[in-house]
Specification:
The structure holds two protein chains of two kinds.
Chain A: H1 18-41, E1 61-65, H2 77-81, E2 87-90, E3 98-101, E4 109-113, E5 139-145, E6 159-165, E7 175-185, E8 190-200, E9 204-215, E10 218-219, E11 225-226, E12 230-244, E13 247-261, E14 269-285, E15 291-308, E16 318-339, E17 342-367, E18 370-399, E19 402-416, E20 423-425, E21 428-431, E22 436-452, E23 455-466, H3 470-474, E24 476-478, E25 486-488, E26 496-509, E27 513-525, E28 528-533, E29 548-553, E30 556-567, E31 574-596, E32 599-610, E33 618-625, E34 632-641, E35 659-671, E36 674-681, E37 709-717
Chain B: H1 2-15, E1 32-43, E2 46-47, E3 55-56, E4 62-79, E5 84-86, E6 93-97, E7 105-107, E8 112-113, E9 115-124, E10 157-164, E11 170-177, E12 180-183, E13 193-197, E14 201-204, E15 210-212, E16 217-225, H2 238-241, H3 249-258, E17 263-267
Parallel strand pairs in B: 1-16
Antiparallel strand pairs in B: 1-2, 1-7, 1-8, 3-4, 4-5, 4-6, 4-9, 4-10, 9-14, 9-15, 10-11, 12-13, 16-17
Classes of the chains: A mainly beta, B mainly beta.
């Protein structure tokens, strides 16, 4: 058995040498200048036209353009998304922060790529949530919908995160573009390097990219070093064809690999994670007078995930390694047409997930001078299958001064497993009948009305139904939640249903800026939570786990909250953005287990217990100013987070103190080909942790956020 | 639009029809009380003094004790009417360790029905059905693991200490009990094991009758009389068996037979 040394170094983990980057720079810069001249030879450059105003969406959604954040020190999409109001994340290590939107988390948040490509993470502990399988350098934008309103991409229960990767695009004339990016972060000596090349013509176009990220362990503001190092490497390739006028065919492939990704807040570390994503997309536009467009797309993604505890002290007692393979394949057909004044989108989609994994535990015992080794293999997932087929219709229309949108979706969901594990004790069935299927209904409706001048009222209602995930149905004894319990799946779980109401006011003053205030209320039926199973029925199999919980349906819980945001007019040289948001979650009847001297001695009901893992009130202010026609842009960000004292008593959740962190940045773009940006995050080196940060394994101490980080990013484009 | 909205609301209400709160009827309450066991460890009637070479067993071995740790399971209360209550609602296996005070008190989660009880029994060790390898992964229980090749599961008991051999040298002994092995030929090569022997046994506590009243909380003191492991009915001689016995089934069998009267019980005042 191989035991590697603990990786807690702050040494940079470098990928391809920096000199390659430097060489690229000196070799290509002269070419850049010449390419500038030649490209202007066959391109008509128009004067920039700016149209100012505000597009008010019917549903609570935000579109994030990644080019606005190109020079920020982003190394993880989950971390980046925490900038959005009412979006937080569960931190377990240096990367792979799992997004939480308005208190909805894990599979309650649908995360997909390019309007339909889905990935099933391999890790039961969510070391690799969907956002961890794609790099921010390859993303053009993120669509964030807070609620079960947009149903055309698949079942959505709590929120939707639709990540748009950069796709190959046609060019009027044969051309080629490139981009090189290098970033460095102090504290954990992190480096990221990215190369991309795109080009083609009107009929054939392509894009390829690749990169590397290597980070060491970071030091928090309290001076403590956390073992959070990781290495990631990735490549993407895409090609597009215009078969004939308005017929576009695109092929995409992406490979992403994580190595030695450390998770101090989980019982294991990621030894290896290999992800393949391939998709094909065919789109026809302007079909005729009635049918407007048709899209056919298909995809397949696979994840090979290996994690172990070889770098943990407990490995001296027992070593554990888990290997999981997950496949996700699917597709959809979508058409849009006009029916009178109504635009109707109709389609069907399908998703198939296969997951299989095994845990190997090895115990060495030295007795009477002899060494004995015992080995046990257990199935984490045993050839589990999850299928979902859906049909949907979306209608958009305008009735007088009211914009109206409605959608309905029907899903048939089925899951099964080849498990030989069954658990029936004292007449109670815990894990037995493995097959389950559901017919789910989801729908939404929203309206937008201009009240006066630039004041808009929007309101939306929705029901989002989510079938239990493979993990919730079939996981066997892994610590997959925030508490220190091993979790057992429940094949007979019922779907969660989220009934949500959103009301929003948007006001835009051209000289002042835009204001948005939004409130929501969610009533969740069959909310999935863990309930303790007694150790006489089943015992934990993970070191550090204090017991076993099984996923089960709570009758009702509710969440409510608001978001407020302000942004200054785009045309101004100064830019001010401010936001505040909070979510409250409540479980009307939560069960609390009474523990005395480490033993459960009884249980009681806690009425109106706060839901666990709900972030507190927070606000952010960002200010920047454009000097020299945006060539020099300094920025300053202040984030204020309230203490979270509203914690679950039933879950023995710990309170979190509030904190304030500040960041400053400066970007300089002397010409359109080159940008350098530098800055400092956590200027005052504050010691703090977010409420959703997990505890360090084997202790009550929370995983702190990084301390002060200086960064510099260089980008060359042509 | 009004018609669409009306339709939407109707569908929503229909779909949400199953969201009504399901009222659970509380089952009728059965009169019952709680039981707590406090464990103590004695030698010759006095509390054990660890690491002191002050004891002499029936074979005349001078000895000291460093560690005592063991499992008991399936605690059973026998009623006068012949019915019984097995402790299993929360835990059914209990670990006791003289170095971990909290393990020496067992607060039974199960409610013990009111009534007259004849006796209390428990399994010393863990039954074959329940003694599965890797069922404990956390300290301290994980340190009780018994090698798979020697039968698997967990030690029933570890009493570690030292004794003075015939040359007056102090030699360590591991008086361990678990699943025994039968070896073909001489020696203890695991490859020659042809059968395993379950050495767990039932301890019936003498004079353990009691009356449980509704909402009563009773505390019993259970004492392990350590010297009894080495006497009655067999005289156990460390000089004969040596330091390690986990591969010596005859020694473990002797311990098993000596163990039936090791425990005594008294009701706390």
């Amino acid at each position: 058995m191989k035991v590697t040394s603990i990786k807690n170094s702050t040494e940079p983990v470098t990928g391809f040498p920096i000199r390659l980057l430097v060489g690229f720079f000196f070799f290509f810069v002269p070419l850049l200048a010449s390419s500038q001249e030649s490209s202007t030879g066959d391109t008509v450059t128009l004067e920039e036209v700016k149209v100012f105003g505000k597009q008010v969406p019917i549903f609570p959604m935000e579109s994030i353009l990644m080019k606005n954040f190109s020079y920020e020190p982003i190394h993880d999409i989950g971390d980046f998304l925490r900038q959005e109001p009412n979006v937080s994340g569960i931190r377990k290590g240096g990367i792979a922060i799992d997004p939480v939107v308005r208190g909805f988390k894990y599979n309650q948040v649908t995360v997909l790529l390019n309007n339909g490509v889905k990935i099933e993470g391999g890790c039961p502990n969510r070391m690799d949530p969907v956002v961890a399988h794609v790099e921010n350098e390859d993303i053009s934008g993120i669509e964030l919908v807070k609620g079960p309103f947009l149903l055309k991409y698949g079942p959505v229960m709590g929120a939707l995160i639709n990540i748009q990767t950069i796709q190959p695009e046609p060019y009027l004339h044969p051309t080629i573009h490139g981009k090189v990016l290098y970033g460095f972060e102090s504290n954990w000596n992190g480096q990221r390097e990215h190369l991309e090349l795109a080009g083609g013509s009107r009929d054939f176009y392509f894009r390829i990219s690749g990169g590397f990220k290597g980070y060491g362990s970071y030091t928090a503001g309290n001076g403590e070093l956390y073992n959070t190092s990781f290495r990631k490497s990735y490549v993407t390739a895409g090609a597009g064809f215009q078969i004939k006028e308005k017929h576009h065919f695109t092929l995409s492939y992406a490979y992403n690999q994580g190595n030695d990704v450390m998770f101090p807040a989980l019982p294991m570390d990621e030894q290896l994670d290999k992800t393949h994503i391939a998709s094909v997309n065919y789109e026809i536009s302007d079909l005729g007078k009635i049918w407007n467009s048709l899209q056919v797309m298909g995809y397949v993604s696979s994840v090979h995930h290996v994690m172990d505890n070889y770098n943990r002290p407990v490995a001296s007692i027992m070593q554990a390694i888990t290997i999981v393979d997950a496949w996700d394949a699917g597709g959809k057909v979508v058409g849009s047409y006009l029916a009178g004044d109504c635009k109707i989108l109709t389609g069907l989609d399908f998703e198939h997930i296969y997951k299989d994994g095994q845990k190997k535990m090895t115990m060495k015992m030295i007795m009477s001078g002899d060494t004995f080794t015992s080995v046990k293999y257990t199935n984490v997932f045993n050839q589990t299958v999850w299928n979902n087929a859906g049909i949907f219709n979306e209608l958009q229309s305008r009735f007088g001064s009211v914009d109206f949108s409605a959608a309905i979706r029907l899903d048939y969901n089925q899951a099964n497993s080849a498990d030989t594990f069954h658990l029936i004790n004292d007449g109670i069935t815990y894990f037995d009948k493995l097959n389950s299927d559901f017919l789910n209904v989801s729908f939404s409706a929203g309206m937008k009305k201009r009240l006066v001048s630039e004041l808009y009222l929007t309101a939306a209602l929705g029901l989002g139904t989510r079938s239990p995930s493979i993990l919730e149905r079939f996981i066997k004894l892994m610590p997959v939640q925030f508490d220190s319990y091993d979790y057992l799946g429940n094949p007979q779980l019922k779907p969660e249903q989220n009934y949500q109401v959103d009301v929003s006011l948007d006001y835009y003053l051209p000289e002042v800026g835009s204001f948005t205030a939004n409130g929501f209320f969610s009533l969740v039926h069959n909310y999935i939570l863990g309930k303790i199973i007694s150790p006489s029925v089943i015992k934990p199999s993970t070191q550090g786990a204090v017991g076993v919980k099984q996923f089960s349906n709570e009758n009702l819980v509710y969440l409510t909250g608001f978001e407020f945001s302000f942004s200054s007019p785009f045309q101004k040289k100064w830019h001010l953005m401010a936001s505040a948001a909070v979510t409250y979650g409540t479980n009307p009847d939560a069960i609390k287990y009474i523990v005395s001297e480490g033993e459960v001695v009884g249980e009681e009901t806690v009425y109106n217990d706060p839901l666990p893992e709900i972030p507190p009130l927070e606000g952010t202010i960002h200010f920047s100013y454009d000097f020299f026609r945006k060539k020099l842009v300094p920025g300053f960000t202040l984030r204020m987070v309230n203490a979270q004292n509203r914690v679950s008593e039933a879950y023995d959740e710990q309170k979190t103190p509030g904190f304030v962190v500040a960041a400053a940045s400066l970007s300089y773009t002397p010409c359109s080909y080159f940008t350098i940006a530098a800055g400092v995050d956590n200027i005052f080196d504050n010691a703090y942790y977010e409420h959703l940060n997990r505890r360090i394994v084997g202790s009550l101490q929370r995983l702190y956020e990084p301390g002060r980080v200086f960064y510099v990013n260089l980008a060359v484009k042509f | 639009m009004n018609r669409s909205l009306t339709f939407f609301l109707v569908v929503m209400m229909v779909a949400g029809g199953n969201s009504c709160t399901e009222k659970k009827e509380d089952p009728p309450r059965i009169p019952a009380g709680n039981v707590v066991f406090d464990f103590s460890h004695l030698v010759d009637g006095d509390p054990l003094h660890q690491n002191e070479l002050i004891y002499t067993n029936a074979a005349g071995n001078n000895y000291l004790i460093t560690e005592v740790k063991y499992f008991i399971s399936d605690i059973t209360f026998y009623k006068s009417d012949g019915s019984r209550k097995i402790v299993e609602d929360w835990k059914d296996i209990f670990y006791i360790d003289i170095d971990i005070p909290e393990t020496q008190t067992i607060r039974i989660f199960d409610q013990i029905p009111a009534g007259e009880y004849d006796s209390i029994t428990f399994i010393f060790g863990i039954s074959e059905e329940k003694n599965q390898s890797f069922m404990y992964v956390n300290p301290p229980e994980v340190f009780m693991a018994w090698p798979t090749v020697l039968g698997g599961g967990y030690h029933y008991m570890m009493i570690n200490g030292k004794w003075e051999d015939t040359t007056r040298h102090t030699i360590p002994f591991d008086f361990h009990m678990g699943i025994g092995q039968l070896y073909q030929g001489g020696g203890y090569n695991p490859d020659s094991i042809y059968a395993f022997v379950q050495n767990w046994f039932i301890v019936s506590l003498p004079e353990s009758d009691f009356t449980m009243k509704d909402q009563d909380s009773l505390t019993f003191n259970i004492a392990m009389n350590i010297e009894s492991w080495f006497e009655t009915p067999h005289i156990y001689d460390h000089n004969h068996w040596g330091g390690d016995i986990m591969q010596k089934q005859p020694a473990m069998e002797m311990a098993r037979e000596n163990g039936s009267d090791v425990f005594s019980i008294s009701k706390a005042e």
